[in-house]
């Protein structure tokens, strides 16, 4: 025999994801972590891989799990690893021998010279060998051998290469031409095992090498593998008379039972006195075994392994009954878990007496109790019916109709409690009323706000509604306070008109009472004597707020009742009455100055027209002597000043006017004396207009800058008839107001032909 044992093996590492995925035994890391594994010489850790043999003859190496794995409930498992076989070989035999992945009841623990590939003679279990030495030709090959049985055939040469037990073995063709095992690169292997659901002695084995499926068929247990449920996973390798280095890394074995939260559940159960047994819903305990029970399949077995066909209504007798629970994960490589136990030991049932405490909220005369929340039973699934008296309970009449919101004063209520097994007992529920939260109504006042005098800024937290400790919440209405809706967010700064607010005072027991708070806005008090004034722009006045206020504060900084030397402008004064202050504004207006709108001049009479300011007006030609009339007669020719002031007797307004030199007769005969009427002296005035009218009012001449504001008694170059003609001269004075001036008169034209 050239083959001894080559095996490389995986680690033990539990990783749970989502709904608890498979436990993984693996050999990974750098250096490889071998915790939980036994290494049999010559297997050694070499950085990130396990070297099972060196490239020398007669080497043997094993790595195996330290503890056995029970596959009783395992219906599938998976193995992944990368292997490399390289080296120089020997002159006589080349490279050899190969390695095996196995699950054995009797794994090798020391050097084995048995059936080749490191598998000892009479090894029992599943063996998957990767063989590189042909013992018949003593040449190189690449074959996979599978045996599910005992390595004891043929009797004279216990070598897995030659074992052909019907239904238990398989040998691939030589893969050297397509997938040679020997080389410097690692080869990736996946082995899947699936247990036949009907016959647990049949395993379907699927083997992939670098993604190519090479084996996929059932194997029936033979020899010592029949009925096998517990064994060791491992790898072995040997070189025999040849030599090769056998290495393995990134090895992972996914094989584990479904993880469960607890192994044994001992629920409370009892027997029905009438029947001597009880019933229980075994499926109700699923969430105690695993999270998310819907992801798993549960089966139940009674005493002696008898399948339970109706687990949701399982009948058990008096005495202890143990139910075995098998949990299966249908969507992963997890094995079934049959460690779950439900131990049913019927005991007498006693309901629990309970005391409930309620609040007599707002002195309602009682409290609202949730009787259904009373822990009258520790048995899951128990039900209770509530009665006001034992008489009603015993006769099963008048059950309480609204047990989840039962209004009652202090009393004792009776509950008939029934377990899912049909056992009953009576529990007393004592209803206790907590002490009433004592509150009193209150009134608070607030000064009217300047921005909205009908409202005040109230600090509701100062309302003396209770002397007891407790939490206060504030509401705009009684309904809100009762329902706990729309609380006032800033009770210390609550803006409100005259009205009410409500304060709910809640103690540490959750009981409350509601107090009403009356809100009174203290109205602002203003001065009745302080009024706006009108003065001349150049004058000052006195502002007096009058007596009767606690204090005064003017916008000028003064704190006296009155202030003097006040000119035109806006002022305010803060008037304090008690604790409230009202700000009153007052204005000192400048009197409106009159405006001279027009001056009419007729010969030596001038008429002044004004508006604005405050009538009646006074008029003057010298600013000293004043008259009520707006007409002045016998005004001398030339420049004059006109003065006007209104009833406030402020500084007058004044303008300068011109009374033109009046010519009443012209004799346009060319003698150079009174030949023309000439107003060119007024050419510097704005908008100067000079018009001549006949006695019928028809305009016959308009003088402008083109004719130098003159008229020579002609119309269209022809002399007009001797007679009287009217004329008017108008302009705007060169002052700020462009005061309009109109001067009118008559003229006699004497033409002699």
Question: What features would you describe in this structure?
Answer:
This protein is 2% helix and 44% strand. Strands 1, 4, 7, 8, 10, 11, 12, 13 and 17 form a nine-stranded antiparallel sheet that branches. Strands 2, 3, 5, 6, 9, 14, 15, 16 and 18 form a nine-stranded antiparallel sheet that branches. Strand 5 and strand 6 form a beta hairpin. The longest helix is centred in the middle third of the chain and has 6 residues.
In brief, what are we looking at here?
This protein is mainly beta.
Task: Summarize the helices and strands and which ones pair or pack.
Layout: E1 5-6, E2 13-14, E3 23-27, E4 37-40, E5 44-46, E6 49-53, E7 62-65, E8 69-70, E9 76-86, E10 98-104, E11 124-134, E12 139-150, E13 169-171, E14 187-195, E15 202-209, E16 212-220, E17 230-238, E18 245-254, E19 264-265, E20 277-280, H1 286-289, E21 297-301, E22 314-317, E23 321-328, E24 337-344, E25 354-358, E26 367-369, E27 383-387, H2 390-395, E28 406-408, E29 411-418, E30 424-433, E31 442-447, E32 456-458, E33 471-475, H3 478-483, E34 494-496, E35 499-506, E36 512-522, E37 533-535, E38 541-544, E39 551-554, E40 562-566, E41 569-577, E42 580-590, E43 594-602, E44 605-612, E45 618-620, E46 631-632, E47 638-645, E48 653-659, E49 665-666, E50 677-678, E51 686-693, E52 699-703, E53 710-711, E54 714-715, E55 718-719, E56 723-732, E57 740-749
Comma- or semicolon-separated keywords:
3 helices; 753 residues; 2% helix; mainly beta; nine-stranded antiparallel sheet; single chain
């Amino acid at each position: 025999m050239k083959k001894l044992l080559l095996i490389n093996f995986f680690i033990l590492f539990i990783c749970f994801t989502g709904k608890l995925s498979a436990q993984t035994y693996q050999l990974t890391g750098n250096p490889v972590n071998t915790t939980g594994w036994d290494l049999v010489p010559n297997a050694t850790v070499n950085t990130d891989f396990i070297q099972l043999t060196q490239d020398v003859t007669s080497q043997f190496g094993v790595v195996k799990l330290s503890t056995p794995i029970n596959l009783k409930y395992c219906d599938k498992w998976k193995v992944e690893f990368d292997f490399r076989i390289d080296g120089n070989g020997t002159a006589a035999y080349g490279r050899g021998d190969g390695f095996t992945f196995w699950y054995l009841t009797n794994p090798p623990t020391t050097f084995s010279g048995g059936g080749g590939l490191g598998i000892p003679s009479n090894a029992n279990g599943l063996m998957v060998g990767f063989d590189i030495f042909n013992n018949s030709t003593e040449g190189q090959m690449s074959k996979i051998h599978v045996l599910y049985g005992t390595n004891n055939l043929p009797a004279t040469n216990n070598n897995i290469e030659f074992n052909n037990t019907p239904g238990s073995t398989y040998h691939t063709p030589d893969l050297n031409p397509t997938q040679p095992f020997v080389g410097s690169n690692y080869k990736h292997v996946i082995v899947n095992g699936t247990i036949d659901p009907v016959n647990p002695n049949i395993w379907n084995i699927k083997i992939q090498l670098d993604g190519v499926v090479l084996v996929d068929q059932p194997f029936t247990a033979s020899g010592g593998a029949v009925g096998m449920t517990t064994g060791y996973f491992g790898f072995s390798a040997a070189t025999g008379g040849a030599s090769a280095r056998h290495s393995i890394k990134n090895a992972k074995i996914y094989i584990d039972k479904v993880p469960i939260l607890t192994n044994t559940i001992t629920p409370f159960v009892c027997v029905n006195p009438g029947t001597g047994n009880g019933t229980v819903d075994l499926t109700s305990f699923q969430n105690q075994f695993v999270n998310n029970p819907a992801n798993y399949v549960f089966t139940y077995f009674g005493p002696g392994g008898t399948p339970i066909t109706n687990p949701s209504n399982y009948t058990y007798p008096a005495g202890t009954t143990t139910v075995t629970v098998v949990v299966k994960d249908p969507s992963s490589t997890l094995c079934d878990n049959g460690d779950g136990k439900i131990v049913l030991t019927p005991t007498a049932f006693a309901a629990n007496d309970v005391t409930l405490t309620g609040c007599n909220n707002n002195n309602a005369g009682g409290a609202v109790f949730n009787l259904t929340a009373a822990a009258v039973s520790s048995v899951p699934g128990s039900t209770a019916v509530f009665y006001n008296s034992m008489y009603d309970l015993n006769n099963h009449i008048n059950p309480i109709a609204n047990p989840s919101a039962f209004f009652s004063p202090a009393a004792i209520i009776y509950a008939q409690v029934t377990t899912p097994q049909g056992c009953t007992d009576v529990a007393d529920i004592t209803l206790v009323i907590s002490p009433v939260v004592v509150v009193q109504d209150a009134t608070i006042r607030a000064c009217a706000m300047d921005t909205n005098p009908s409202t005040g800024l109230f600090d509701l937290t100062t309302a003396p509604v209770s002397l007891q400790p407790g939490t206060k919440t504030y509401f705009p209405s009684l309904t809100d306070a009762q329902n706990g809706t729309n609380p006032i967010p800033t009770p210390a700064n609550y803006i409100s008109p005259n009205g009410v607010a409500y304060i709910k005072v809640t103690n540490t027991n959750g009981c409350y009472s509601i107090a009403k708070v009356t809100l009174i806005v203290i109205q602002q008090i203003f001065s009745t004597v302080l009024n706006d004034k009108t003065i001349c722009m150049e004058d000052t006045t006195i502002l007096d707020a009058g007596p009767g206020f606690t204090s005064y504060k003017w916008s000028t900084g003064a704190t006296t009742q009155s202030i003097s030397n006040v000119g035109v402008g806006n002022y305010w004064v803060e008037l304090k009455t008690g604790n409230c202050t009202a700000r009153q504004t007052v204005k000192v207006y400048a009197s409106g100055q009159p405006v001279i709108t027009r001056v009419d001049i007729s010969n030596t009479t001038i008429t002044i027209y004004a508006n604005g300011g405050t009538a009646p007006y006074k008029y003057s030609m010298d600013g000293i002597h004043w008259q009520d009339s707006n007409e002045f007669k016998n005004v001398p020719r030339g420049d004059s000043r006109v003065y006007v002031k209104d009833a406030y007797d402020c500084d007058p307004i004044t303008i300068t006017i011109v009374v033109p030199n009046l010519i009443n007769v012209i004799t346009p005969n060319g003698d150079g004396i009174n030949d023309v009427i000439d107003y060119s002296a007024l050419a510097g005035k704005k908008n100067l207009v000079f018009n001549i009218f006949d006695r019928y009012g028809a305009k016959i001449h308009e003088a402008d800058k083109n004719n130098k504001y003159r008229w020579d008694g002609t119309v269209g170059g022809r002399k007009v008839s001797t007679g009287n003609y009217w004329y008017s001269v108008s302009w705007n004075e060169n002052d700020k107001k462009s005061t309009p001036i109109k001067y009118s008169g008559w003229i006699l034209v004497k033409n002699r032909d």
